[in-house]
Amino acid sequence: MQKVNRLQPFFENLVFERDDNHMIINFGPQHPSSHGQLRLILELDGEKVAKAVPDIGYLHRGMEKMAENMIYNEFLPTTDRMDYIASTSNNYGFALAVERLLDLDVPRRAKVIRMMLLELSRITSHLFWLATHALDVGAMTIFLYCFREREFAMDLFEDYCGARLTHSAVRIGGVPLDLPKGWLENLAKFLDKLPNDIADYEGLLDQNRIWKMRLEDVGIITPKMAQSWGCSGPMLRGSGIAWDLRKEEPYELYDEVEFDVPVSETCDSYGRYKLHMKELRESIKILQQLIPMYKETGPELMAHAPSYISAPKEQIMTQNYSLMQHFVLVTQGMRPPVGEVYVATESPKGELGFYINSQGDPYPYRLKLRAPSFWHTSILQELLVGTYLADVVTIIGNANIVFGEIDR
Amino acid sequence: MRKYFDKKNVQAKPYYTDRFHKVPHIPKEDIATDEVFAKDVKDLESSFFIKEAYIQKGQLVIYINPKDNVEVLKFLRDKLSYNFLSEHSAIDWLAKSGEFEIFYQLLSTSKHKRMRVKFFIKEKEEIKTVSNIYKSADWAEREMYDMFGICIVGHHYMKRILMPDDWYDHPLRKTYPLHGDEAAQWYEVDKIFGKEYRDVIGPEERDSAKIVQEDTYNFSRIKHEVPFGAPYSDEQTQTDYQEEGGIVIVKKLKKSESKILKERR
């Protein structure tokens, strides 16, 4: 039934070698180190990249379209599928945007739990980044070590919400559950253990000749370039610009905890590697401060806003009016005020922004997801030019891109 | 007779409206309430026409002339130090007024301020590219073209970015249904097999929630699976993967000697 020649679309590279001795190759979309479905069309001059055209869209699910057809609470689990390495950060970004739209005040305990989950997901994300990046560059041991520690963090997530990858553990208005018994002790154990493990990674990589040769002076992003291309997160701080939204536009209780914003002045991949390691340590520092903070909070977990948020389950089951309200909120959805918000949070990858335009309907009129990886992938077309083919792998791995987020 | 639906906006709509529900609005504050923004707007007004300016949720929103977009952004970047373009996209108001609303979300790291530059264009109107001012606009503009069909003049590589090159229509328009249009359900059939096989294969089912009773591939007949194309039968299928007395997956597992850890090592 199938014609053999049918599967050769016209846009494939029909001309391999041209008059100017340049060669065009497809890097991906099924390349193991393209971190998902990135197709890079590279024009090579010998071993050097003369032109790079990133081609994306192989994982496009139309999340913005879906958001326009869903009530706000319905859309929240979909955000898990953006940056699936650290899904809580997406849940949180969306929940915060809607909370700003509704002008909600989240209880303090929920804030502490959210921050714990956010920092834990930052740790899992950075560990995953190091694991895959090191694997791309050729360090297999690091991959296994990082996954071992990541497993611990994943188990903590599992203990809290039951899910390991797509948590949906943050709700609009708070968190659904309190921490289970013994969770804080396990967290403290993990936090005691992790600094030694990070020291192990650094012991293996910091002075490693191959690691340094492959990362130093590779993928240099100058501060000017980083600003122009809209870089954020470690990609921006790796270029010497100290800009961390947790510090600059504090949300939750980030203004109450003490942490530093590490910056790398070298602008290269090795500097960004050091930066990620420092950020892991800062996350540990934040989590350690959160444990005593949790113990001083009251028991409320969800914001009190009857027109937008359902009452606690206990109240729903005992009071008729709360039950009616819950029914309306679940079947029809909340109706936020008319207006627009753009709320940005610091996800592990960078600035994760949610632009919501509400017309007072239960469905957002327009929801734009500003995923950091999208902007970090677009920089590849300038960054890769002039580098060697082998460095392409390093640069892609170092940029920390996740395709769930790029294609959305 | 089939109920009439307005095709101008085919997105999900609330099926219940409360007569007494009064929709609140997020207040728009005067720009004089913030010194930095007041100065910025004053500087801008000296050389550009500004239709409207207000502060909403701590961010400045200004409406400009669509013709000025390049000059305004250049001014904002060079003179007013808005050094990041963090987001750029459009909103579809075609059903309401036949217009698109374009917005640029800007950030100034030195002033710690965010602002939004907005303007309206007609459906077929073109806008000038800003990718030579903020390079991050490069892909944002491509995405906007892909999703809304807004043409951008002067862009170096104006091509669809997320959808395939030969896709029909622009998916984020309100006229575009969530599950795709007529062209979408034939796209893969045409691409892989060819138009002449449309009758053989049939249109692609794009509603992921749809369950066909006879189709065992989508879990509608668990334990009654049949080979592809075979008629459905009521007989229960053998689903055990282990043969009788046959293959044991872990050969040396002794259950009596294994132990479950109380806590993580």
What does the model show?
The complex is a heterodimer of chains A (408) and B (265). Chain A is mainly alpha-helical. Chain A folds into 2 domains: 1-60 and 376-408, 2-Layer Sandwich (Enolase-like, domain 1); 63-370, Cytochrome-c3 Hydrogenase, chain B, CATH 1.10.645. Chain A has 17 helices and 6 strands. Chain A has a 3-stranded antiparallel beta sheet with strand order 1-2-3. In chain A, strands 4-5-6 form a 3-stranded antiparallel beta sheet. In chain A, a hairpin with a 2-residue loop joins β2 and β3 (48-55). In chain A, α3 (87-102) packs antiparallel against α4 (108-137), α4 (108-137) runs antiparallel to α11 (269-295) and α6 (183-205) packs antiparallel against α11. Chain B is of the alpha/beta class. Among the domains of chain B are: 31-126, Beta Polymerase, domain 2, CATH 3.30.460; 177-208, no CATH class; 209-239, no CATH class. Chain B is 20% helix and 18% strand. Chain B contains 6 helices and 7 strands. Chain B has helices at residues 35-47, 69-78, 94-97, 137-148, 182-192, 198-201; strands spanning 50-56, 59-64, 84-93, 99-108, 113-122, 127-128, 152-153. In chain B, the strands form 2 sheets. A 5-stranded mixed beta sheet of chain B has the order 1-2-5-4-3. Chain B has a two-stranded parallel sheet with strand order 6-7. The mean pLDDT of chain B is 85. At the A-B interface, α1, α8, β4, β5 and β6 of A face β3 and α4 of B.
